[in-house]
Amino acid sequence: MAPSRTGARLVVCRREPLTSTCRAGRLLIRKLIAEKLCIPWNEIHLQRTSKGKPFLANDILGSHPSFNFNISHQGDYAVLAAEPELQVGIDIMKTNLPGSGSIPDFFRIMKRQFTEAEWRAIKSINNEWIQLDMFYRHWALKESFIKAIGIGIGFNLQRIEFNASPLQLEVGNVYKETKMLLDGDKAEGWTFEETRLDDLHHVAVALGKPEVFVQKDFNVLSKDLTQPQFQVLTFDDLVAAGVPIAPEDPTYWDNFCSKQECPARQSTHSR
């Protein structure tokens, strides 16, 4: 089955025993490739670029030359976005209070990450919690773009500026109104899908044609792209069609179960 024209959006909830969002993300990739490209689980070969972006290393250039996917995980969810033709990057952020210090102190530490216009938009709201929520929304947008172009650490985040719209996102809806400036110019060739999975988790998906970032040829995206909704999966959904990718080791589970659920803390008091 070929990938759909509008791609795929998958999300899995972490609330499963013995399942981390990192592990769930890897399972999401295998489920997607097995179902969309009909490659058996145990024949899927994944690699990473020099900048750390995962890609499918199987020889599929004949039928799916531009198949692209990306994952992210934070808080209670792991998320995946995939596209048959477009560059894609995805990021999820959970709104959390700073570990120490106040929200204004946190903003001062992060000042260089956003432009002056972005900070004005964030701080235009009187409520500090909503300001923090907007901060993480902008952060997810920036990370989605960086992950789409596959540059990684070292990109100057002030080169990109977002005009987030609308200001409020309803849970479950997909929005495409947000626009981006790249080096001060309108980046018409990039589309950003935004959604809320719940009151705390933002998801941003960056979509652009290959070579868009390099050539700055921004008039390339079709305007009739529909907005894929996220499909929510459980851990059982992820592994339902899975097959072992390595010979089973019968001692592995026994060794795992023999470990302490919570290692005892060593006393720091001298005797």
Describe this structure in words.
There is one protein chain. This protein has 271 residues and is an alpha+beta fold. The chain has seven helices and twelve strands.
Features:
26% helix; 271 residues; disordered N terminus; alpha+beta; 3-stranded antiparallel beta sheet; 4-stranded mixed beta sheet; disordered C terminus; 7 helices; single chain
Strand adjacency order, main sheet: 4-5-1-12
Q: Characterize the largest beta sheet: strand count, sense, and whether it forms a barrel.
A: 4 strands, mixed
Number of extended strands: 12
Portion in helices: 25-40%
How would you name the oligomeric state of the polypeptide chains in this document? single chain
Query: Structural class, please?
Result: alpha+beta
Counting H and I runs of at least 4 residues, what is the number of helices?
7
Given as residue ranges, the uncertain stretches (5+ residues, pLDDT < 50) are 1-6, 214-225, 267-271
